[in-house]
Design goal:
This protein is α/β, with parallel strands linked by helices and 298 residues long. The protein has two domains: 126 residues, Nucleotidyltransferase, domain 5, CATH 3.30.420; 116 residues, ATPase, nucleotide binding domain (Nucleotidyltransferase, domain 5). 43% of the residues lie in helices and 19% in strands. The chain has eleven helices and nine strands. The chain has a five-stranded mixed sheet with strand order 3-2-1-4-5. Strands 8-7-6-9 form a four-stranded mixed sheet, with helices on both faces. Strand 7 and strand 8 form a beta hairpin. Helix 8 crosses helix 9. The protein is globular.
């Protein structure tokens, strides 16, 4: 059960593949503090995700002038990347006992809540990873988001990986060399160095090459244009599918979203809407929904 505190606090958490952001509010919805930390995708390991979450939370508490004793007064809404199964939710809930009460959902769910202020709609996240999600009739439906490299086609990680693959093929003489492939190879120095790097590279690391692809695509580099058009096509396919499922409109979210807009296939933009709120607003809405119900189901 959620206890009623005279000085209740609400924490929204948006834990993605590159960073974790939190926002702290009082019972009246007034902002008290924000903070950020490292990657919070639980597929990187729950310890990694939790360290990032708590780093961000401590920063928000410090900004609000609050100490550790405030944690027990917090109702937290956690939207974390990598939550796929019921066991994932249970593992996070068991770790989150530091808070007074908690609700756990995927980052897609909280992003969708925020984008449509709790109403029906769809969202396509295009960040380090990618996933589609729709709330239809109050029920959540996910599309994709099975993790890199199995899924995540319309993502920064996928674009960066494809740019590196193109550079390797160019170095072997299997594909044409362009300014993009030369720029990628210049970062490593050799194909062998790429192999060594890949043994420990995470999706975030691959994603760091996506700005290079977008920059060269804007200059007309043929390889870069092909790669960007490919992920834009994948994004468009997800958007159309979400609408076909019953989402009235779809919002794009994630760091890649502004860059992919000019490359989307014809007809996709008419399916899009402007978000009414961000993922942190959705996470806070999740927390307040739980508090109003008096339970911790999410």
């Amino acid at each position: 059960m959620v206890q009623a505190f005279s000085e209740a606090l609400y924490l929204g958490v948006d834990g993605g593949g590159s960073r974790c952001r939190v926002r702290l509010q009082d019972a009246q919805g007034r902002p008290l503090g924000e903070g950020s930390g490292g990657p919070a995708n639980i597929r990187l390991g729950l310890d990694v995700a939790w360290d990032s979450l708590m780093t961000a939370t401590q920063a928000a508490l410090a900004q609000a002038g609050l100490g550790q004793d405030a944690l027990g007064r917090i109702t937290a809404g956690l939207g974390l990347a990598g939550i796929v199964t019921a066991d994932d939710t249970v593992r996070v809930m068991e770790r989150a006992t530091v808070f007074g009460s908690v609700a756990v959902a995927s980052d897609s769910h909280t992003a969708c809540l925020g984008a449509f202020a709790g109403e029906d709609g769809g969202i396509q996240i295009i960040g380090t990873g990618s996933s589609g999600y729709a709330i239809i009739g109050g029920k959540g439906h996910s599309v994709g988001g099975w993790g890199f490299p199995l899924s995540e086609k319309a993502s920064a990680a996928a674009l960066g990986r494809d740019a590196i693959r193109a550079a390797l093929e160019a170095s072997d003489g299997l594909a044409p060399r362009t300014a993009l492939t030369d720029a990628v190879m210049a970062r490593f120095g050799s194909a062998a160095a790429i192999v060594d790097w890949s043994e420990t590279a995470r999706p975030t690391d691959y994603g760091t090459f996506s700005p290079l692809a977008f920059d060269h695509a804007a200059l007309g580099d043929p390889v870069a244009v092909e790669l960007v058009q490919r992920i834009a096509g994948d994004c468009g396919r997800f958007v159309r599918h979400l609408v076909a499922m019953g989402a009235p409109k779809v919002c794009l979210a994630g760091g890649v979203a502004p860059h992919i807009l000019p490359w989307l296939p014809q007809g996709v933009t008419q399916c899009l809407a402007t978000p009414r709120g961000d993922a942190l607003a959705g996470a806070l809405l999740l927390a307040r929904q739980v508090a109003s119900r008096g339970d911790v189901d999410a």
